[in-house]
Amino acid sequence: GESVGLHLPTLSVQEGDNSIINCAYSNSASDYFIWYKQESGKGPQFIIDIRSNMDKRQGQRVTVLLNKTVKHLSLQIAATQPGDSAVYFCAVPSQNTGFQKLVFGTGTRLLVSP
Amino acid sequence: DSGVTQTPKHLITATGQRVTLRCSPRSGDLSVYWYQQSLDQGLQFLIQYYNGEERAKGNILERFSAQQFPDLHSELNLSSLELGDSALYFCASSQGQGDGYTFGSGTRLTVV
Q1: Spatial distance between the Cα atoms of B112 and B96, rounded to a whole number of angstroms
Q2: DSSP H/E element including A110
Q3: Which of B43, B46, B50, B68 to mutate to test the interface with A (most CBs of A within 10 A)?
């Protein structure tokens, strides 16, 4: 089955720095990827998604990069703010059941210090 | 507010007991998904319902069951509770089965 892993459990940055959170996936047939942000005491919140026909997608202060060759995606947050402190998950629909099941990575906790 | 409502927010109960968690999806969403989040396991898919029918099952224990009612709200029933069942339980909803979903704020279950 699919597996999704993140490279660092915790990332500490200074306010104003750019943050990069990485994620690796196992299934080369995966064609859709989602990043979620989970703040303390809240449910995961959709940030940005990307389909496999794209290498890069930009949102407001966030960019997702997809490298299908090495099955790796990253979330870049520009000018990180204290409000960005949260756990970030990448998620991939299960190959067998599609959106009926999202497989989540273990998450990276982003700590932003002023 | 995501539009997905989960109740209760917190629940403390004893081992061996049974609890029911409730989820109301966003207006117009037909699919409901249940996930369990514990410290050492991350977000684990439990079960999905679409318009009242079970559509996908994950690592859901036999002691757990769920259903989706005609008004599309869903309930997750957890019985014979064990200490290891302590976790956050999230519900998410989506319009269909081919789009991303929106999570509720979760129910924190503590089994003592």
Answers
A1: 38
A2: strand A108-113
A3: B43
